[in-house]
Amino acid sequence: MAKFFRAAIMGPPGSGKGTISKRIAHNFGLQYLSSGHFLRESIAANTEAGLQVKNYVDRSMLVPDQVMTRIMLPRLEQLSSHSWLLDGFPRTLSQAKALHDLCQLDLVISLNIPYETLRERLRDRCVHPASGRVYNLGFNPPRVQGKDDITGEPLIQHDDDKPEALMARLRLYKDVAKPVIDLYKKLGILHSFSGTETDRIWPYINSLLSAKMHIQPTVAFQSQSP
Ligand code: G5P
Ligand code: MG
To answer: Which helix (H) or strand (E) holds 26?
Structure first.
């Protein structure tokens, strides 16, 4: 039976999880699942789950574990014959245990990025809400200021990227991530990367995945667009 590759990427807000995940998905053909994207999608669609999570996401608080696992685990069950990469899930020990009961991860990437770098990045970040495409005024600006490259629709800044919300998100991240990181360290699947630039961290992650998946990436990563 084919062995499917299962990975997760962890890191504080703005650490580059989404940016790096898209490169991994593009180069290695992994199905990409972002918890933040699913949450924003359900909020935008006004679903029951969306109404339930809106208050938490707007206030940069963690969505309760039970709600989170109800959103994520069925999607993973549907992907039982795929290789995939999780971005932003699991985030708490309870989520990690629920995931472990369903399937075991092969590899976890943890990003360590200094606070000052995170603050600058998120101050300059804007997104296209309908697609989740992310821009940064310095790193990957849109072709026309304030407009999505593909649709031309307006870009917005998430409320939880504003400085006052960011500090709370970082504090929360540190507290809840530690036991999750310890768990994956104990399982021998944790790989940590530190730095201030995604483009410098990326070659190490690219090499690690090539070695772990026993393949060479088929396409060299060229562009940042999803
Ligand atoms: P999200 O959506 O998962 P966060 O808080 O984990 O949100 P975020 O903000 O999405 O993380 P990221 O994905 O780590 O950040 O980073 P990114 O978007 O790739 O990069 C950040 C910016 O920096 C971008 O503009 C990018 O272009 C730029 N950039 C990247 N690299 C560089 C570089 O080298 N240089 C420069 N200059 N720029 C760069 O979760 C949102 C909310 O959902 C809930 C929570 O409420 C959370 O607050 N939630 C959960 N709650 C409970 N459990 C879970 N599992 C949950 N998952 C989500
Ligand atoms: Mg993200």
So the answer is: helix 17-28
Q: How many residues does the chain have?
A: 226
pLDDT tens figures, 206-224:
999 999 987 655 454 443 4
Domain carrying residue 183: 6-213
Q: Looking at the CA of 118, name the nearest ligand.
A: 1
The answer to whether residues 84 and 6 touch, using CB atoms and an 8 Å cutoff, is yes
C-alpha 182 to ligand 2 mean position (Å): 22
pLDDT tens per residue, range 152-184: 999 998 777 777 778 878 888 889 999 999 999
d(CA 102, CA 73): 8
Q: How many CB atoms lie within 10 A of CB 52?
A: 16
Atom of ligand 1 nearest to the CA of 59: 46
Confirm if 32 and 87 have CB atoms less than 8 A apart. yes
Q: Residue 185: in which H helix or E strand, if any?
A: helix 163-186
| Pocket probe mutation, ligand 1, options 121, 161, 194, max atoms within 8 Å of Cβ | 121
- Whichever domain contains 134, its CATH number is 3.40.50.300
